[in-house]
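step 3/5: co-fold with pyridoxal-5'-phosphate
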Amino acid sequence: TQPDPAAGAAVKAADRAHVFHSWSAQGLIDPLPIAGAEGSYMWDYEGNRYLDFSSQLVNTNIGHQHPKVVAAIQEQAGKLCTLAPGFAVDVRSEAARLIAERTPGDLDKIFFTNGGAEAVENAVRMARLHTGRSKVLSTYRSYHGATAAAINLTGDPRRWASDTASAGVVHFWGPFLYRSPFHAENEHQECERALRHLEDTIAFEGPQSIAAIILETIPGTAGIMVPPPGYLAGVREICDRYGIVFILDEVMAGFGRTGRWFAADHFDVTPDLMTFAKGVNSGYVPLGGVAISAEIAATFDKRPYPGGLTYSGHPLACASAVATINAMAEERIVENAAEIGEKIIGPALQDIAERHPSVGEVRGMGVFWALELVRNRETHEPLVPYNASGADNAPMAEFAAACKERGLWPFVNMNRTHVVPPCTVTETEAKEGLAALDEALTAADAHTV
Ligand code: PLP
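step 4/5: write tokens
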């Protein structure tokens, strides 16, 4: 497509006239008008093409405009666009089957939502009704969505404005060796101390009052901290001992991102409830859901489940999930994510870390990696303070701008950049993006001491 700056300006003006954006001071934002996207790339109206190392909001696991998914949506639109959740619909049943076949253990019933936050809301509701208890525990370093319960469960600063109505939510510290809340010196210690801390939290909150513990299997937005060996199994054991429902939030980590269908597959752990969204259909049509264990599903065999959504199991969304999951299986897209991570991204990031003093730690797997950027490698002082904005955040803003100048669209959160391209990313694309990242990190190095 030819550059058309005038068209881009018109798109931006129309946006600024009436669109109210998420998480933003409306008068301070400058949204980039996008003309199109395909595979791992998107482009603007000025003739700039960007390799998307953020997969939008870490959701386009299958890349943009996958022809099989586009065709499935078109075909479903021609057949049946919408139907109330109470009916039985072929594509909804098929999507549920394909998901249930892949979720661990006996998580064989699927409740569909429009996205991740609603999945978390419903998982929490199911846990509370199943146990008759009210409290839910989550970690400080977490993101679970922006609706009522989901934002309270979230640990990051986006929660603060909504903390006025956080009844029943208790935060604790999950394991994170690089910034160990437990002053641990190795992964084994970190795991042991994190589990003891969780047990202490439960004891002081009252085990009989706790309905659920919710964890991201690998925390995503908060920093892609792969849990130490034994941690998730330890949490599972604690939940079993106290009759607490174990919820794994796989909204970001699920559907291929870690190089397996679910991150839980790496740890051989089965939760009681598992939330998903994003990668289930790469967000081509909004979709999320909860995978439910046989025991919790049975709670609602005779007793009505008091929850629902007009668009639960929307036919267009389900058709796109069916096509996405089938294409991922046929084209070995999950395997591609694992291979690219192991052979290309992981080694390249280790090499980058050696050459850039601003890189404090590299962690991740599959197409799910974080670089912890620091001012000082010895002290681990973050490149920018926690929740920095304005001038305090300048080093990260300069780094992000340096990426974009090189045709790379980065994922940036606080003092981190995440390397989270689509699961379909090719070796050539990954190398192109890593080379741009390598150069852009010089901007971060300039702020090290
Ligand atoms: N849970 C996790 C782990 C997420 O990463 C997100 C979104 O980033 C959500 C829940 C919320 O999903 P949504 O934005 O679709 O409501």
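step 5/5: annotate
The two ends are 45 Å apart (CA to CA).
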